[in-house]
Structures are given as structure tokens and as C-alpha cells.
Amino acid sequence: MLTTAPRGTKDILPETSGHWQYIEETVYNLCRIYGYSEIRTPVFEHTELFLRGIGETTDIVDKEMYTFTDRGERSITLRPENTAAVVRAFLEHKLYAGPQPTKLFYMGPMFRYDRPQAGRYRQFHQFGIEAIGAKGPAIDAEIIVLAVQFLRQLGLTELKLNINSVGCPQCRPVYRIRLQEFLKEKVSSMCGDCQSRFDRNPMRILDCKKEACTAHSQGAPQMVDCLCDECKAHFEQLKGLLTAADVDYVLNPRLVRGLDYYTKTAFEIQYSPLGAQSAVCGGGRYDGLIQECGGQATPGIGFAVGLERVLLALEKQNLLPEAKSDIDVFIAPLGDNAQAPAFRLLCQLRQAGIACDMDFLNRSLKAQMKYANKYPARFVAIIGDEEVKENKVMLKNMETGEQQLIDMDTIQQQFKAERKG
Question: For a disulfide at 201, which of 57, 88, 262, 302, Cβ 3.0-4.6 Å?
Fold first, then answer.
């Protein structure tokens, strides 16, 4: 279908692009305040990066990646998330040699073959933060506070912050044994995915949203009861820092996140008016990821916000700004003789930084005035045969209806003076 976008994709049209720019401006301002610098990575990477970075037991790798073989017989994947790509860039460009921690943010499209639904697409957009090189809980708290502030700054108030600790390679094996012991008599009644996860990554069973699987895993042992001393101390300090920052949270022992690289801190922010699919932000610590990708053992933490989900939340709460396409001047040429002077004036005004447009369809004056009013334009500069002869412009104030005949050479100075005033 040449006239239909592929399923799971969406055009961002002029009437909504302003909403995206509003969110992007909020991101840039907030990240500047927090000291995070922008990074832009390619939209595709070597498939191996995601197999090693995300984990082969995840739904993303199992079911959702857009992978293809290029003409050089290389396996390439459109990025399904951006943390692994940022880690690759961190290692490739030796960002670890600079001042630490390395604090980065990104915005851009990601790709997953998922079932399209409200706020979820196969090409979707994320704003993400990565802080690499600090292992203490203070950076965890900063990351979480930044995420909460971003959503609050957009006007969202019914936010629920869920936190958990998913342990580390030292204490997680203990939990794995306890969890498998609890689930072994029940797993045969669970879905195929959970049965597959039982041996590969049983913690992921807690993340299953199927009603039967959720029921069977009720009462499962909690990771927080199996934490080693280091993980326990880290988590307790994090909770204290969030309390100090006046950020409310809920301890959610079932929160494990969907990526294998998480260690210690895991968190998710939900916006309840969105219903069942209420998560708008998720993240956590990934202290083993950089080593898994070929670097030295280096701690890291980050989050990602689904921008389509945020836009949907803002739309539901009528929090999106009104689209603005108004201009300072609309130039209305009347007849062939007025075309060149009108176009010259258009170019002069634009070069002076004055927003303006002109009629390109040779419409009647009445039609041009109607169009200028819909734009809307603050002023209309009418140029007919008489105005051309006298090198003047009939300038009409569209708000007051006042008209004045002014020299074409002085209109630019007039608008500049008005702005200064």
C-alpha cells in the first residue's frame, strides 16, 4: 500500500509536531540543569551487541528485534533500545578517559516488532538518561529524581514510582534457587514463555502479565529478602535519599524489568490514568553491562521514557500546548506586476528575522485576507499596482482593522522598532 504507513508506525504531522518540540525543549532544559550531555547513536547496530547487552532470554531478543543481513553478510539490528548502543559508544570513543561519571542523554526512534496499541508502536521514540562510572546510591537517586521531575514538569501529577532491588551476581543465585523451588510445581500450568524462563531466567516469570501466571506466582519469595549486605545497604541508602528529596515511592517486589542487564536498583514510573499499560518510564542499574560488552567492570544506571506514552498521557489530561503557526506579516500581491516586489519584500523580511509568508496561488484579495486570518497573521501587507508605482505597502492590522500606507523600504525598520518596544 503506497498510501498507507507500515503497521505500527505513525506520521508526525505539522499540527502535532509542536507537541514533540515542547517535550524536546523540556528535555534539553532539564538535562542542562542536571549536567547531562546529548549523545546520538546510529539507529542500527551489529546484532551481537543486543544479544550480549540485552540478554538472549528477553522478549526483545526472542520476539521483537528487527534483524536483517546487509549486503556485506553482516547481521544488523535496528536498535530496540539505546542503552547498549550508548555503552558501545562509551567504549569505542574512550569516554571513560574523561571526567567521571559520564552523564549522557538521548532522544530518538527505537524499533520493536510488537503488537501496536494506544501509545505503543513498532517505531517509537524514547528519551533516555545514562550515568556511567558511579556505583553509589546517590547517582541512582539523581536519575530517579530527574525522571520524576521531567514528568511533573510536563504537568503529570498522578505518578506512582515503583522501586525494587534485583540484587547482584553474588546474591541473585540464592534467590534463583528459592524462586525455582517455589515455582517448580506450578510452572507446568503457566504460559509457554514462563515455562521457558523457568530454567533460563526465572525472575522474568514475575514480570509476566498473563492472569494465570500472575496468580501462580503470588506469594513467591521476594528478592529483597535475599539481598547480600552490599545490595541491602545500597537499597536502604537509596530509599533514604528519595525520602530526603521528597519523592514518594512504593516498594514493588515483583518489579524486575524486562532486560537481563539490570543489577541492584530497578524502578518504574506509572501514570494510572493510562489504565493497564500505565508505565511511562523505566530504568535501573547495570553494573555488569559494560564488562559484558567488552570493557572493564564499570557501574552504570539509566532510564528510558516512552515519548508516545507521555504524549498520550498529556493528551488525556489536556496538558498539551495549543499549536501556534501565527506569523508577523502575510504579503498579499495583486496582479502580475506585484509579484516581484512582493517576493523581494518577503525575502528582506525573512532575512531580518521577521516571520512572514505570501500568496503563491494568485488568489483574489478577499481570498487572501481570509487565508491570512486563518494562519493567523498579525498584519497583511497589500501590494497592488498603485503600491508598486509608489513603492509603498498598504499594511493592515488584522486585530484592529487599521490600515496605513507606508514606504516599502521602511516596513522592515517598523517591525524591528515594534519588537524593541
Answer: 57
Same domain, 344 and 413: yes
CB 91 within 8 A of CB 53: no
Total-model pTM: 0.89
Query: Using 50, 70 and 90 to split pLDDT, how confident is the model at 277?
Result: confident
- Asked if the model's pLDDT at residue 420 lies above 80, the reply is no
Number of domains into which the chain is organized: 2
Q: What is the pLDDT of residues 366-378, one digit of tens each?
A: 999 999 999 899 9
Task: Tell me, yes or no, whether 387 lies in a domain.
Answer: yes
- The model's pLDDT over 209-235, given as tens digits with 9 standing for 90+, comes to 788 888 888 888 898 899 999 999 999
pLDDT for 388? 95
312 and 343 assigned to the same domain: no
Residue 402 lies in domain: 327-420
